[in-house]
Amino acid sequence: MDLHCKLAVIKSLLHPHGYCVLRAQVEENFVGKLPDQWCNSFEIYLKPNNSAKQKQYEVLCQENTALIAKLEKVRHRARLRRHEHAGFELELFVYVPKPETQVTSLRRATAARIQEQIPRVAAFFVSTTLKQE
Fold it and tell me: How far apart are CA 126 and CA 120, in angstroms?
């Protein structure tokens, strides 16, 4: 999931709690797109340049001065391009872990497996009929 922030974000980070403000903005955007999935342990990643591959994304620093230095470096790289930073966007990403896989796998229903499960199915039917009475 990605969040594109404009250059104005860097100026808002001059606030003493810059990282917290930025994290709150990312969380707000994230919750708007994927409700009930935000976790405080999620890391926010920064795409350092336009051609960076996903494995080159960097975790944002939580310390304000290091964060501002990193963002200024990204902005400086954008200014060095041909059209300066006219199309500059700060790209931030949050990785959402995949849901856990199913614990029990599906198995082919063979005659032997069906025979193994008959007592269990019978017990289930007995318990449900007792609850209905």
Answer: 10
Ranges of each domain in the chain: 2-94
Beta bridge partners of 4: 91
CA 68 to chain CA centroid, Å, is: 23
| Coil, helix or strand at residue 119 | helix
Does this model's pTM top 0.85? My answer is no
Q: CB neighbours of 56 closer than 8 A, spacing ≥ 6?
A: 48
Segment 72-84, tens digit of pLDDT: 888 888 777 766 5
DSSP single-letter state for residue 106:
P
Beta strand segments in the chain, E? 2-5, 44-46, 58-59, 90-94
Q: Is 49 within 8 Å of 77 (Cβ atoms)? A: yes
